[in-house]
Amino acid sequence: MSLVVRIVAPTGRDAELTSGFLRQNGIAAEPCSDLVCLLRQDTDDTTGALLIAEEAIDLRTRDALIEALRRQPPWSDLPILILTGTNRSVFKTSVDRFRELGYPVVLERPLRPETLLSSIRAALRARHRQFEMRDTLEERDAVLAALKNEQETLRVVIDNLPVGVIVTGRDGRLVIANRNAEKIFGKSLPLATTSSRWRIWEAFYLNGQPLDEHQYPLWRAIRTAEPVPPENYLYCGEDGEMRWVRIAAAPIIDTQGIVSGAVAALSDIDREKRAEAALIKSEKLAAVGRLAASISHEINNPLEAVTNLLYLVEQNSRDTEASQFAIRAQEELARVSQIVTQTLRFHRQSSSPQLIAIRDLLQPTLALYRARAANQNIGLQLQCRAEAKIFCREGDVRQVLNNLIGNAMDAMRAGGRLIVRTSNARDHKADVPGIRVSIADTGHGIPPNTMKHIFEPFYTTKGDNGTGLGLWISQEIIARSKGKLRIRSRAAEHGGGTVASVFLPAGIDV
C-alpha cells in the first residue's frame, strides 16, 4: 500500500517545495490547500500522515482536526506532524497548545532535511502498522463470525438430533448438553460443572447396583481412548421412578493425539423396555392359560372321584360326627375344584352371584387357618362390626380372603396378631354403600420399592414358594365385583405391619 503525506503550508511555496523534496526521497506527498475540507471527509487508506505548518492551524482548523480524530476507528491513530517557529518559548507553548490534538509530533523550524525525512518515515511506518492491525482485526472478526455461525449451526443440528448428546471435558466438566438429553433426564443440565464429574446422571446396572465413577461410559472412553459400544442402564428420574436409557460414548482426540474429552449419545428406551416387559408378561399369561386349561381338565377327574367316595362314606357311616366331617370335606373339595378352575382360567366364572352375609364368608375361611395360626403363635381375631349382606360370587370372594389372610400369616413367621374386621363403609366417589373387610397383621411390612409392584402378575418376594399371581388375581376379582382392594404397609423390623382393605358394595347385582 502506497501512503501519501498531505502537506498544509499556507505561506508561499512551502507546501510545493516540501512535497517535491519528499518525492525525491521516495515518499509520496501532495500539497493540500483546504485542510478543513479534507478533514470533513472520511480519511481514506491513502493518507499516511499530515504535515501541517503551525500558522495553518486556526480555531476552525483545530476544531476540524479534533472532530476528525474523534471519528477515527479504534485501530487508527493518524500521525500528525506540526512545524512550529524558531523561538524556544514559542515552541514550548506550541507543544502545550497541540496536546488536545493527541500529542502530535512537533518539529521546530528551521528543520534539517534528515530530521524531516526520519520523522516522516517513522510516521509512515506507524501508519503501516495500523493498517496491518486493521487487516488482522478484520480477519479475526471474519473468523469469529464464521466460527459463531458454525457454532450456531452445530448447536441447531445437535439440538434437533433424535438422540440425547452430552459432551464433557477431560476433567469431567459438562460442555454441551442438547435438549433431548435434558428431556430424557427430565431436568436442566448445568454446563461447566465439576461437582459430579462423570456422574451427570445417577446410573444403575440392571440388577439395581449403582455405578461408581470409574464405570461410567464417558470416563471409560477417556481412560481407554476407545469407543464404548451402546449399553443399557437404569437411571432415577426426578420423580424417583427408575427408567431405561441406552448410552454409547466415544473419546474426543485432538490433532496431537491427546484425548481432550468425550461425547455420549443417549437413547430413551424406557417405553421400548416397558412394552417388551408387558409383552413378556402377556406371553406368560397366555402360556399359563393354555397350561391351566390342560391342568384343570386333568385335575377335575380325580376331584370328582374323591367327591363321590366322600359321598359314599357319608351315606354309609353310622357315626354322626364322621358323617358331618365327610359333608364338610365334600364342601371344601367342591370349593377346591371351583378354585382350580377359577384361578387357572383367570376370567372364567364358575358360579353365579348371590346374596350372602359377610360373616358367612369369613367364618369358614378363618376356620381353615386357626390350626396354622396356633402353630405360628399368631393371635387370630374376628371383629364383626357390620352384618349386612353383599351380592357376590361366593367362591371369588373366599379366594380373595384366602390370599390376603395367607399373605398376612406368611409375614408373621415369628408370631404376631392378625385382626379381621368388618365395618359399614361407602364408596364416596361412586356414592355406593357397602362393607369393608380389613385384614391387619403385625408382620415385617412391605418395603416401598416392593409396594409399587405388588399387583403386577408374576411379581413375588417368596422365591420358589410364590407364583406372583395371588394379589393380581385378587385385584381382578374385586374389580369385577365393582369393589376396591387397597393395601397399606409400614416396613420395620419391629413395629411394622400391613393392612389390606377390601370394599364390596352391598346388595348390588354384579
SSE inventory with pairings:
Elements: E1 4-8, H1 14-24, E2 28-31, H2 35-40, E3 47-53, H3 59-70, E4 80-84, H4 88-97, E5 105-108, H5 113-159, E6 164-169, E7 174-177, H6 179-185, E8 203-204, H7 217-224, E9 228-236, E10 242-253, E11 259-268, H8 270-316, H9 320-345, E12 354-357, H10 358-367, H11 370-375, E13 378-384, E14 389-392, H12 394-410, E15 416-427, E16 432-441, H13 448-451, H14 470-480, E17 484-490, E18 497-505
Parallel strand pairs: 1-2, 1-3, 3-4, 4-5, 13-15
Antiparallel strand pairs: 6-7, 6-11, 8-9, 9-10, 10-11, 12-14, 15-16, 16-18, 17-18
Helix pairs in contact: 8-9, 10-12, 12-14
Summarize the structure.
With 510 residues, the chain is α/β, with parallel strands linked by helices. It is built from 14 helices and 18 strands.
| SS element count, helices | 14
Describe the main β-sheet briefly: 6 strands, antiparallel
Give the strand line-up of the largest sheet: 7-6-11-10-9-8
If classified by CATH, what would the architecture of the largest domain be? 2-Layer Sandwich
Instruction: Compute the number of structural domains.
Output: 4
Helix content: 40-55%
> What's the CATH first level of the largest domain?
Alpha Beta
Work out the radius of gyration.
48 Å
Number of strands: 18
Features:
single chain, 510 residues, alpha/beta, Rossmann fold, Beta-Lactamase, Helix Hairpins, 4 domains, six-stranded antiparallel sheet, 14 helices, 44% helix
